[in-house]
Fold:
Amino acid sequence: MSNIVAIVGRPNVGKSTLFNRLIGQRKSIIDDISGVTRDRIYGDSHWNGKDFIVIDTGGFVKDSDDIFEAAIRDQVNIAINEASVIVFVVDVTTGITDLDSEVADMLRKGKKQVVLAVNKVDNTKRHLDVPEFWGLGLDEPIPISSVSGSGTGELLDKITELLPEETIEQKKLPKIAIVGQPNVGKSSLTNALLGEERNIVTDQAGTTRDSIHTEFNKFGRELLLIDTAGIRKKSKVHENLEFYSVMRAVKALEEADVCIVMVDAKAGLESQDVNLIWLAHRKHKGVVIVVNKWDLVEKETNTARDMEQRIKEKIAPFSDVPVVFTSVHEKQRLLKVLDLAIEVYDRKTTVISTSKLNDIMLKAIERKPPPSHRGLYIKIKYVTQLRAAHPVFAFFCNHPTHVKDSYKSFLENQLRKNFDFCGVPISIFFRDK
Structure:
């Protein structure tokens, strides 16, 4: 199970600024106007030897203060259910508000670990105001300043102290996760593959509260399906539902060997789909893209070849990914989805002999040697595959730090061309000979 840290709190307390600080990059949009964070944002972080995912909950729902507060309550409930640790952010300049107290009540009733971060503590006077937040009935308040970074080290120490130790379990079956945005047909695909209503599919979003792991053993295929569906058929997908969807997808993705990323054929590949694909790539997971509801698309103006080309342009440079067009409703090409997922899993676990690897790659390198760098002539002598959960290759050369990224891309393309790593992320390292 992945470690997820969710940042919650009322609007304009500095959640996005803290998020950017924790992941070490400016990813969330920051503004003094409440409700700027509209899309669910997540990023990787590492501290004290532990890796974890940080999710910025945002909380923008327009039109009414009552709806706004209801959405915050929904997101806190989701965080309580899904996160390993919850960071509750409050604002020292306003003191404890009614909404802060309400959120604190919910967190106390939950069984998850909570860290109370008192933000905007950037001078001595504000430090004196921090003890007021003991009144929320949570653990010791930690004074921080998201803008300057003051106190964030202590905050991270506390977070990693509370994160559970990850256990490495023996993988007996290929783990295939079905992920995607709400209403793309994830549960319907699982039910169709299993031939039974294993997962509840209703008109109410949020039906499935937990990831559902189901052993699949049919048609000569044996694997473990991880379904994250249960958010379906909602005319307007509100922010809390999108947040829930991302939480489920991230957790399932962390567990999986291969991710089936489902896309709505009518909507096309959207930014959230691209985010999921690239998150899978960064986590070294295999990827299969399934374009569902293909029966509802006008084929004369939108061919499968055209859509596949547009999809690969959007996810470039990781465009060597299998794409299959399905209709779960019409039971079209469903077994093809499983075939592709298993093929990607097999490629991901492929081990190439050192002799074969050198025979092919050294010839490609000889045809196009690496460019010199500042007068240094770079010569690659040897290549080997390292033991890892995905294909990792080490190229031994005389000046490993001077090999350009463009040449690294060339080597990856040659590996994909000669050894068929479609749908599989590749890692390349250069080592001193």
Summary: The domain at 354-432 is CATH 3.30.300.20 (GMP Synthetase; Chain A, domain 3). Confidence is low (pLDDT under 50) at residues 26-40, 59-64, 197-211, 229-239. The chain is about 35% helix and 20% strand.
